[in-house]
Amino acid sequence: EVVMCNEIFEPLVEGQKLPVDEDGKITGMARCVYPTGQVYEGDFVRNKMEGRGRVTLPDGETYEGEFHQGQRHGTGRTTWPNGDTHEGEYAHGKRHGPGIYRWADGRVGAVVFDQDKFKGTWVRRTAAGTFQKFLVGKMVKEVSETEAKKIIQEHRLDSPW
């Protein structure tokens, strides 16, 4: 016999009851284990991730931040198993807007994403301390630190250094 299981909800604090609304839906803070192995701890509205929380995927990727309608939406931080991180804006489950991207090897960039793809002009400091200007996802040229800071200001990005 095979039994298919949907998500499993648990209270965040042992001994507490699950926050269930009048329709039997989880509305409040809880922990959920999904059939895919994904684990979410945080705010729910009617069984959907909504508000603030933390999701961990089976491969070790984590996202901590804001959710809307079950997706990453608002500000948050993703950390990948290789050590890279992105801190910034998300929309409908994708990186979208300005942010700070840190590569595990020490590079750091003031970046802009559009639906999970690099967009526009942005800058990156290399692990060696030099600065690079990018257009979309391609390096255009090396620039001085002064020029890099000017690009950050012109594009209203947060400075990562």
From TrEMBL:
<keyword id="KW-0677">Repeat</keyword>
<protein>
    <recommendedName>
        <fullName>MORN repeat-containing protein</fullName>
    </recommendedName>
</protein>
<dbReference type="Pfam" id="PF02493">
    <property type="entry name" value="MORN"/>
</dbReference>
<feature type="region of interest" description="Disordered">
    <location>
        <begin position="55"/>
        <end position="83"/>
    </location>
</feature>
<dbReference type="InterPro" id="IPR003409">
    <property type="entry name" value="MORN"/>
</dbReference>
